[in-house]
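pinned: reference chain
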Amino acid sequence: QFSALAQTSYLVGKPSTLCACLRGHHILQTWLVTLHHSKTSLYRQLVPAAQPFMSHLAVAYASEEKLTQAAPVFVQHPDGSISQGLPPGFEDITPPDTPRIGPDLTALQGDIVKVMARHELLFLALMLIHFIVRAAFDSLELKYWDDAITELTLIYPDLPNRSLASLYWLACASESLYSLAFFGLGVVATYTAKPAVFQRFAVVALIGTLGQLPLAYLNLFNLLLFMLRFISYTYARFMANLLRQIDALREFSP
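pinned: its C-alpha cells
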C-alpha cells in the first residue's frame, strides 16, 4: 500500500502525500531492523516484498527533495495576501533584456494609405456637393435677380434702386470669386496632402462661413451653404491634425 501510494503521489506531484509515505517508510524500516535482529521467519518473508517499496520511496524522496529545493513556494495568508518563499541558494532566471527600438511602421503603411485615401475621397465628395449647391443657387440668383432687387427695395425704401442693384451684384461677384478660391484650394489640399495646405483651407472656409452672416442684410444668406462651409472647416482641421500625427510617427520609424 505504501508503494502504490508513493507511486501515485510521485506521478501526481503531491508533496503532502509523499511526506506521509516517507514517514511510513521510516516506521517500516525501523520495524524491519527489529525483525532482523530477532532473525524470525517473518523477516525473511517481508524483506523481498519490501524491496520494491524501498526503491520507489527512494526515488520519491529524491524527487520531493529536489522539488522543494529548486522551486519557490507561494503561501496565501488569511487576509488574502500572498508571500513567496525561496529555498536556500535559489537563483531566479534573469529575463532577457528587451531591445529598445522605435515603433515599426512598415506593417502600418498599407493601413495608413487606406485611411488617408478614404478621407480624401470623403473630402472630395464634400467639395463636389458644395460645388453643386453653389452652382444651383448661383443660377437661381441670376435668373431671379429682378425679383431679388424688388424685395430689397421693399426692405430699404430709402435707398435708390441703382445702389441696391450695385450691392446685390457686388455680393454675387464676391461669392463667385470666393467659391473659385474655395474649391481650388480644396483640390490642391487633397492633391498635396500637406497639413499646412489643409490649415490654409480651414482658414478660408471659416472666413466664408462667417462671411455668410452679412449677406443676410441683402437677402442672400444661405443656411445650406453656411452648414457646408462649416463642415468643410471642421473636416479640414481634422485632416491637418491627422497628417501631423502621421508625420510625427514617421519621424520615429527606424
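why pinned: The beta strands are 73-76, 82-85. The longest strand covers residues 73-76.
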